[in-house]
C-alpha cells in the first residue's frame, strides 16, 4: 500500500536549498535548480509503505533525505527478491527517463523515510528543451544505473550460489 504524508516546506527557496545540498545535484547552477524544483514536494513514508511497484508507470525522481528504502525485484515463482537498501543522500528512481517509463524495481520504506519527490515528466521536458542540462543529468543518472546494475548482478550471483 502506498501511503504518502506530505510535509510542506515554508518556501521554494528552502526546497531549492535542500535540493542544492543533495549530492546528486552538487555543482548544478542556481538557475537550473530553480527550474528543477517545479512541482517538487517533500514526502514522508512510514516503514513498510511501498513507494512504487515494479512495472507501474514511472513519474517521479526521489532524493532521499532521511531513512532507508529496500529495492526488490519480482522473481516469477519465487516472489520478491531483495536487491539492496539505499539511504540518506541517495536517489531513487530513474525509470521516468527511459521508455517505456516503468519502474524497474519495487521500492519499500524500511524505516520512516523523508524524500523530496521531483516531477519526472518535468525533468524529461527540461532535458529535451536544454540538451546541455539533459547531458549533465544523464551523466549523473548513468552512475546510479551502473551502481544498481552491479549490485543486482552481485545479488543474483549470491542467490544462484545457494
Task: Give a description of the structure.
The chain is of the alpha+beta class. It has one domain: Jelly Rolls (Sandwich). Helices cover 35% and strands 28% of the residues. It is built from four helices and nine strands, in the order βααββββββββαα. The strands form two sheets. A five-stranded antiparallel beta sheet has the order 1-2-9-4-7. A four-stranded antiparallel beta sheet has the order 3-8-5-6, covered by helices on one side. A hairpin with a 3-residue loop joins strand 5 and strand 6. Helix 1 crosses helix 2 and helix 3 crosses helix 4.
Q: How many distinct domains?
A: 1
Strand composition percent = 25-35%
Q: Per CATH, which architecture? A: Sandwich
- Strand element count: 9
Give the overall form: globular
Major β-sheet, in short?
5 strands, antiparallel
The CATH superfamily bears the name Jelly Rolls
Write down the overall mean pLDDT.
89
Structural class: alpha+beta
CATH class: Mainly Beta
Lateral arrangement of strands in the main beta sheet: 1-2-9-4-7
Distance between the termini: 31 Å
Q: Look up the CATH topology.
A: Jelly Rolls
Question: How would you summarize what this structure contains?
Answer:
By secondary structure, the protein is of the alpha+beta class. Helices cover 35% and strands 28% of the residues.
Task: Sum up the structure in keywords.
single chain, 162 residues, alpha+beta, Jelly Rolls, five-stranded antiparallel sheet, four-stranded antiparallel sheet, 35% helix, globular
